[in-house]
Structures are given as C-alpha cells and as structure tokens.
Write a structure and sequence with these properties.
Low-confidence stretches: 43-61
Structural class: mainly alpha
Number of strands: 0
Helix content: 55-70%
Largest sheet: none
Order of helices and strands: HHHH
Mean pLDDT: 81
Distance between the termini: 27 Å
Number of helices: 4
C-alpha cells in the first residue's frame, strides 16, 4: 500500500488509507495535517496570507504568525503524544519505550526550533528545509511507527 507522501513544498491532503482504526489517534492525526498545512501555507515561511492587508500597528507581523502556527503544531503534538502513550500503556505495547523515546526526541527538536523563533522575536522564519523536515517526520511517524502500534492495539482489542 502506498501512503502518498507529497513532494517538497506541497501540502498534505488527508487520505483515508492513513486511518489507523483508533478514533482518538486518527482525530489527532487529522488535526496534525490541518496544523501542518497552515504552517506550510505561509509560502516560504512568513509571507502574509493571500489577500491579507500588510501588517500595521497592533497587527501581528508575518514572522510572529508563523511562530504562532508552529507553536500550535508543537503544542498539539505534545498533547497527542501524551494521549497516544496512555493508549500504548493501556494495552501493554511492547515497543512503548522506543516509541516514547522517538516522541521525546521529536519534541526536543521541535522545542529547540520554536525557541530559536521565539528568541528572534518572530523575525526569523523556518527555512524551507526545516518545514519539509517537520512535514516528513510527521508523515513518516504516523504512517509507519503509529501504524505498527495501531496493529498491535487492534489485535489486543479483538475479542
């Protein structure tokens, strides 16, 4: 089965073959795709939304908008990982420690990227390579690592 990772710079379009069969996890993944696409929609990291007036006093600058979108993505992933790990523990997932380790590493790397954006006061943008890395990691994780966990989960829940 091909899961269809889009090429660089292209938004993810949700496909039902990405569903894992765990309602909470699937809902989180759909929200992750939505948040990721919001971040990618800034075209090159920091351009104002199409049709939006140029920044004026009291209005967020494009870089701070990217920071807000990126923070929303990181916060969502943090919450998603906690929910997913609780489900893993509830069924005794044998690869729990490795999976949790990957979550921890990812959150640390994303937190560092967010810190660099925050320290710049929103003047710095995520470069296209960083945006592509975030997209690829998210996609690869939920169609490979999470799929293995979901298959285990569903076998455990089968009567």
């Amino acid at each position: 089965m091909s899961f269809g990772m889009p090429s660089a710079g292209v938004a993810l379009v949700w496909r039902d073959d990405w569903l894992l069969g765990i309602e909470t996890v699937d809902a989180d993944h759909k929200e992750l795709v939505r948040l990721l696409n919001l971040l990618l929609s800034e075209e090159g990291g920091g351009s104002p939304d199409r049709g939006a007036p140029q920044a004026s006093p009291g209005r967020r600058q494009p870089g701070t908008e990217q920071l807000a979108r990126f923070s929303a993505l990181v916060d969502h992933l943090h919450d998603h990982f906690r929910r997913e790990e609780a489900i893993m523990l509830s069924v005794g997932y044998p690869d729990f420690e490795a999976h949790r380790g990957e979550h921890s590493m990812q959150i640390a790397e994303l937190t560092e990227l967010r810190r660099r954006l925050t320290d710049s006061g929103g003047r710095r943008h995520l470069d296209p390579e960083s945006l592509e890395w975030v997209k690829r990691w998210c996609f690869d994780h939920f169609v490979t690592e999470d799929r293995r966990f979901a298959e285990f989960f569903l076998r455990q829940k089968r009567p």
